[in-house]
Structures are given as structure tokens and as C-alpha cells.
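Fold it.
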Amino acid sequence: MNYGETSPSNASSCICPPGFGGATCAQPGCGGTIFDGSSRSLAQPSASSSGFANLTTSDCTCESGWGGVGCNVCTTSSACQVAYVVVNGNATLGLDGGLVGLNDTLVCNTAPTVWAAGELSCQVNNPTLEALYPLGSTLNILRTLSSSLSPLHNTSGTLLSPSTSSSIYAQLMYAGVEQFFCTASPCTQISSNSTTSSGDTTSSTWTCQNLSCSCIQNATFCGGVPVSNLTSTIDGLTGTLTVACDSTNTCYFQQDVINSVFGSQGLSMEGCVFGECISQAVIDTTNAISSAAAVSGGTELSGGVIAGLAVVGVIIAFGLVIVAWGWYIQRAARKLPFNGGQYGGVSVRWSDISYIVQSPKNSPSSLIAKSTIRGGKTILDSISGSIESGQLMAILGPSGAGKTTLVELIAGKTKSGHYTGSITFPPYAPGHHPRVAFVPQSDILPSMLTVREALTFAACLRLPEALPASSKAALVSTVISKLGLDGIAETRIGATDGTSRGISGGEARRVSIGLELVSCPDVLVCDEPTSGLDSVSAFRVVNVLKELAREGGVAISHPGSHGHRKGVAVICSVHQPSSRLYHTFDSVHLLCNGRALYSGPGRLAPARYFMRMREKGGAGADVLPYEEGYNVADYLLDIASESPGIPGMPLGNNAVGEVELSVSREEKVHGGKDVEALSTQNLAPGMYMVTFLTQLQVLCGREWKVLRRDKTLFFTHVCVACVLGVFCGGLYYQTGSTIAGFQARVGCLFFMGSLIAFSSLSALYNIVEIRPLFLRERSNWYYSPTAWLLSRLIFDVIPLRIIPTIAVCTITYWMAGLAHDAVHFFKFIFVIVLYTLVMTLFNFLLGTLFRNGGIAILLSALSALYQMTYAGFFVHLASIPPVLRWLQWLCPLKYTLEAISVNEVGSGLMISDTLQGVPVNVSATLIMQLLFGFGLNNYYRDILVLFAFIAGLGVAVIAVVWFKVRERR
């Protein structure tokens, strides 16, 4: 027992730790001193103590100058000297050779610090332990730092430490009877000195490895009382042992299991007495060495701190490298020479165009992706036509004739169906495409920007990086003037659906055209630019398009050039133009059920064509007659609607090139500004015109304007967060340290996590709301999806998610009376911010993955309910059937609640309560593990898991935005 060892000189006897003896080292010393060794009198077994040696009933009294249970602790220096001389005579201490000749007077060290080998004896006072074992409990500990420097190292029958290494021996005595014993080795000692108003104080902390404990069978703690048998618990104590003592005669016995029961400080021991007989020479020499080390060295950082700093440093360095590289690329792009050249002068030819759309087949996957194939419907059937540069063409036809499909194919938009035929742009070779701008039927515009800001935004992203900002501003001003928008240039656009005031519908249509004109296109395609407008606004819009076709749109000022601009081919699908509007177009392309009935000059030419067809008879005999003065556009629509069986125009009869233009295509040089257009090689289609850093800067500038102008969005989030924080804090105001109070603490933490899960739904709505604008801008190659996501992260996640979350959690945290120190507070906030990022990215993923916002919101709400179920608050995770238990590992709220709960109990929270008259004073860690099953050491694991969620969801969002969230018509 007590880790005694067989004597090397006598195999039938044991050498025992100081204070114990007998054949098995099971009997504590009774009277005498620790220098008596194997000749010391021992306490004898007692029948009243079930045959165990009992110091109380053995009438053991301590000699003068000795104290503690078992009389192993010296109290005076003279006691050490007398005891040593009695046993060893006038012999020297026999210390190491380096100390010979120094002051070898024995003294009694009564401070917590140990110089060689010191004893301590403490009373164990814990209400819960005393409720089970009401008699007195004492813990005796021998701490050996260097056995060779102790005067006990030559004492007969005495073992200070195994293999002369630093170690700890500990015995718990209950009512004078030993209950269990422990040892740990090797050990390190950290001592600190401080000065207070009462004088200098000393504290000592011993940290030992390889703890091993043994319970003495049938002792009171170890089966003597069957209902409270601690044998398995005590024998299971392993790992690291820490014994921390301070100048208030209080020590703490700390080990993971003990800490989980009695709190983070471990088992508290009070009324401790320290005593160590030691040579003055050892103290003097050790003090000198310690002082030199303190002068020459500093405090070392722990490995975890160094690793954490290294990770943070690598992340910061990587970010700085990325920023520096982006800045270098940006600077290089801005230094490139700007190559000038003509733009415009491009014709459009489409030949034998057919388009078949797939019929939908109902399937669950249609909620995310396009429907599967089940047959098909022909939208366009072998259509041919052409338009020359400088002309304005109207594509007419009744609803469903294929007008929108044709203009989208000409504009190069991605379509979900299958088409055949060819579209060429002379003088470009087949397969090469000029700059084709497309104005969609609906006006999707940034509502919080002014007209000038919206056009400037487009110019900054769609014009080359090398072009100076002043030239871009001049181009924007030119566009505004040409479109007649000078009066509203500084007016906010507003919502085009009428929910907020802004510009009119006609003005919004001209702004949409202007967004395409700033890119200096060769061909301009408009899908029903007059829909929804009154006749005056419609005529004004078409007049602008007519002027653009004739004069070639806008160009960029370039000193020293004296060139001219070529006309731009403008193609418009028009639903039902007035007579005045119809006569503005140079050519007409009439569609009926996907077939081209006419493609040629405009004005009265189509009516004459169909009248000649009627006169020839045959299949054309069904053509309606034309009445003089009747709107030609209405006549053509009547033919397409009521005479669908007439033959289409033969391929060789296209007469668009024969149109007489009333205005010269060349701009006169005199009286105008010398201009130079953007060259084709600077604006190759399918490329971003500016670098990634410029894209991010421009996007962030727009987001900042929106956030600054829509102040209600930010302040509403913050105000609601503060109100919820006060409500939640009042609900859990100053929770107590009882069992019910602890449950309320975890409930408060769970409430905050659930609140974040549901409040992040606003991020999903935001994505759904701005999705159409992103699709339009991405299809026109404004910016990359990654730049857009980063701008959303900066100006949506931080001000609208993280700041309100910190506000609500901070208010609740201090009102609820959670851990009152900065370290645990910031660790709590850190976890909450990570969970906020997880939920925001998750809702970003749903908002981008599903086209239907209602489905995305439903799934987000259901996922929040799933997380609440598997968080571990409503149901103990170990009680869930195995077939469903694995779902807990996919629950971010589970890791969040576990991390912040562990952080809370890690502050040393103790549960003080009374159960049926029995006082309970245990660590909150024990209650947490029993009620919720959270792991005490899982905080940093949970942090890493949340980081993994952030990384995985971030990659998923980027992948979905890149490969799925794209315009598909």
C-alpha cells in the first residue's frame, strides 16, 4: 500500500513514504517524527474501525514542534534540528558535494514553496462531501522536488520518490482512517511572490503527470458504505494532477474528474499547514539560481498560444499577399495603352433559325433545376432576316409569335432550349461576335442609386481599366444628354414596381437603354422597349433609338483624333405600335407562329407586299385587304393573327438593304467634338473589363451608398436586436447558481442561438430580392460572382447580421448574469459570431440554390426547427435512437450551444442547492454533463467544427453562384 517498495537490503520489509510503516506500509505513524524512519511507532488496527489503523483511537499525540494529521509537518526549526540529531547524532547532513562547507543548519520552511521535500496537511471541507461523510476528512500530501537535497533521503525505511524523480504522494484520512492514496510523477513547481498590504506572500502550483490512485477496499469511501461506494471513481483518477496552494493556507486538488464534480478549481482544502525540514544552504543556493534565471529569462509562450498566433499570422499574411497582388494587377491594367478605333458599322444576318423548347416533366428536381425533357415545342421555324448598320428594325407579331425568343438569340443570351441555324455579324467572320447590347423587357435597376450613379457604375465596370475616370464620366454625361435624362440625372431611380417613388416608366426604360450604351455596343437589341408606356413616352424612347442608330450612339473623347462614327444596328421587338411609332422604323420583320411572314423595308412596303400576294391568288388569296389610312402595324398584326396559313417570304426576297435612309450615316466633322470609340480588342465579349480589385471597389461603393441612404434597414436591425436583448435579459435576469438557475442559464444560451437561427432568415430574403439585378449584371459581364459575394459579405453580413447579433447577445449576457469576466465574454461572442456566419451562409446557399423564394424560406425555417431539436437542450442526445442520432453531427446549433455552455461552466460556476435537506455544492460541469451530455473539453473542437461549416458553406455558395445562378431564358 501507499506505493511502498521492497527494501534492497531486506526482501521481507518495505521502505515507505514518510509517516507510514509496517509490512505493507498500511499503518500511519503514531507520534515520533518523520526522521524516526522504520523505528517510528505506528498506529494499530482497531476493531471499531473495521480492522483499519486509526490515528484517532490510537491516542497518537504529536511531539513539540510537529503538527498535522500524523505529526508529519514541522512547525519550528528547532524541532527539525532536535529530531535530526536524535536520530543521526552529530553527523553532517550528507548533502550534495556542491553544498559542502555552506550553512547546513536545519530550518523549517512553512511556506507553500517546496525546496526539496515538504509535507502539507489540509482539512477537506465540502458541503456535498460532508453530507455523505459527515466526519472530518484530511488530505496529507508529500511533495518531493529533489530527494537528494532533503535531510530525509538517508533515513532508514523512508522512500521520498520513485527513482529519485520529482513526485507527489497523497493520502486521504477520514475520521483518522486512510481511505485512498495517490501518486503522480514527474512534477514541476511554479512559485510566485507578491507584495500586499499584509506583507510578502508566496504561492505554489505543482503540476504532475501520470496520476494513479488506489481505493482501500472496505474503507468507508471504498465499499464500507455500499450506497456511496467511490471505488471505481477513485481508481479511475488518471492523467494530470495539479496541487495549487496560496498564502491563505488554502490548497486545491485538481484533476479532470474532480474538477467536473467540484468546479474548475478542484477540491478545495482549507486550514492547510506546510512544513519542510531543509538545510539553509539549499535555500540560499536555490534562491541565487532562481534570481539569476529570473534576470536572464522571460516568460515563455505556451505551444497553443504560439500555434494560434502562427495561424492568425498566416491568415493575415495571405490576405495581405492577395491584396498586394490585386493592387499590382490593377496598376498594371491601368497603365496599358488605350487603343482607339471605330465602333458600329456592323450588320446582322440570321439564317434558317429554328428553336425548340423542351416541354416540362413534373419532378422534384424541377424545384432547383430546369425540367427534364419530354418532347418539345417549336418556337421558331426556319427564320431568316437581316439588318444593316444605321437601321432601326421592328420585329412585329402577335403574342406567342416568337419575338422575344428571336431577339434573345440575336443578343446571344443563354437559352434553355435547342436552336439551329446561324447568326453572323458582317464584317466579322463567322464565329466572331461584336459587342451586342441587350435591353430586356423589364427594367431591373438599382433603386437606391441616382440615374447618374447607375450609369457611372455600369461605365466603371464595362469600360476598360486603362480608360481614365474623367473619360468615363464624360461618356456618362453624353449618354444622359442623348437620352434626355438631364432633368433627372440626380434623381433616385426608385422601385420600378411602384412600391417607392422615383422616375417614371419611360425614364426607367431610357435608363435601361443607357446602361447598355455606356459600353459602346456595335449592335443594340431591345425587347419590347415601348411596353407599358403611353404613346408619348413610347415615341420618345423610339426616337432616341432612331437617333442612336443614325449617329452611332456615344463615343469617348480622345484629343487629336478626327474620325467619324458608323451607325449602329438597332433591333426592337414591338407588340402593338401606333401608326406614328410604326413609321419611325426603317425595316420590319413580321412573325407568325414562329415563321417569318415578311422581312424587309418598313412604312407602306409590307402592305404593298401582301397586297401583291393577294392579287396573285393561290395561297395568298386569304390575305386581308389593306385599306388606305389604316395603321400598317395593325394590318400586319391582323394578317399574322387571322391568316396564319399564308406562305412565308422566300429567302431570296429580303429587301432590307434597299431601304432609303433619309439621314446620312456619317456624322459631319465640323461643329462637333472629335471622338474616338472603343476598339473591339479592348471589349472582347465574355470577358471582364476591369480587374477583380476594381470590381470589388465599385461594388462596395454601391453597397455603401445603399446602406447609407437606406438607414432604416440598419437601424431597424439594431433597434430590434436591442429590444430583443432587453426582453431576453429580463426573462433570464440574474440567474442563480441553483440547479434550476443553471437550467435557466443554458436555456438563455439556447434562446440566443435559436434567435440567431430564425433572424438570419432576413439574409435569405435579401438574396431573393437582389437576385434579378445580379442576374442581369452578371449576364452583361459587369463583375465576377466572387466579387459580388465578397461585397455582400462586407456590407450585408457585418452591418446587418454580426453587429445586431453582438448587440442582442451583449445585452442579454450581462443582464442574465453570465460569467463576469472579459475572457469568457469574448469567447462567448466569438462563438456567437461564428454561428451567425454559418446561418447567414446557409441562407445564402438556399437563396441562391432555389429559384422559388417561398421554398427557400420554408426549408430555412424547417432547418432551424431541426437544429433546435438536435441542439441537446430539449432532448438528451444519448437517448435518441441510433438510427436518428447521427443527425446531431450535422447540426451547427449543437456545437454552438455546447461551446458556449462549456465556456460558461468553465468560469468556475458552482451549483449551490439543497435537495430534500441535503446540501449540494458541486461543479456546474457535472450537472451539464448529466443533463445535456456536453463534453467539458469540446470548446475548441466545436470552434473548429463551426469553422469547417463556414468553409464548406462558403465553398458551396461560391460554387452555386458560379455554376447555377446565371441568366437562362
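The CA atoms of residues 326 and 546 lie 42 Å apart.
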